[in-house]
Amino acid sequence: MTTPVCTSASDAAVSVRQTRAHTRPYPSFASYVRARQPVLLRTARSLTANPSDAEDLLQTALAKTYVAWERIEDHRALDGYVRRALLNTRTSQWRKRRVDEFACDEMPEPEPVPGEDDPAERQALHDAMWRAVMRLPARQRAMVVLRYYEDLSEVQTAEVLGVSVGTVKSAVSRALGKLREDPELDLAR
Questions:
Q1: Using CA atoms, how far apart are residues 46 and 65, in angstroms rounded to an integer?
Q2: Cα dist. 69→2, 28, 59, 66, 155 in Å?
Q3: pLDDT tens digits for 127-138?
Q4: Which tens digit of pLDDT belongs to each residue from 71-109?
Q5: Residue 30: which residues within 8 A CB-CB, separation 6 or more?
Q6: From CA 58, how far away is CA 65, in angstroms rounded?
Q7: Could you tell me which of 77, 40, 78, 75 has the C-alpha nearest to residue 59?
């Protein structure tokens, strides 16, 4: 018996496409990640202080989503599923955290961008705001991030966190009150 030989380049291309289709079981997952990665990365960055940690956090949440891809019935709710995975993963990391970071004597200064307002003042305000947000209790911080940084409605925030709309309203109100009274933000205004 002889082994069949590909007689044309088009037959070879079809064979390669079929092989690739079998090695990528979820092409819809890949397209989802391509489309939503910037938004999800912004959410992850709001949950961590370090951009590298945010990327790791997002990768972990996406890996969990990939494993559960077949079990997710409503693909319209994928953003909520991934956000929930981000919050749960970050909470687990926080509970297990080890302190292995060391303070340095001098902080590197970013290069000023010509033609913009004073970047030092803008960065100082941004840093002061994040320090104030990070001082909030975890639940309030998560609600503030989802409401104002992710621009979710109160209903959507309640759905993502699995709480009532009233809980979101009262917790966000308390969090904003704490931010208004923060002495570090008072100096930045």
A1: 20
A2: 42, 10, 15, 5, 25
A3: 888 888 999 999
A4: 888 878 888 889 999 999 888 877 776 666 667 777 777
A5: 24
A6: 10
A7: 40
DSSP string, the chain: -PPP---SHHHHHHHHHHHHHHH-S-HHHHHHHHHHHHHHHHHHHHH-SSHHHHHHHHHHHHHHHHHTGGG---GGGHHHHHHHHHHHHHHHHHHH--------SSPPPPPPPTTSS-HHHHHHHHHHHHHHHHHS-HHHHHHHIIIIIS---HHHHHHHHTS-HHHHHHHHHHHHHHHHH-HHHHHH-
Query: Counting Cβ atoms within 10 Å, is residue 174 exposed (0-12), middle (13-18) or buried (19+)?
Result: middle
Neighbours of 20 (CB within 10 A): 10
User: The tokens 């019935």 sit on which residue?
Assistant: 73
Instruction: Give the Cβ contact number of residue 170 at 10 Å.
Output: 13
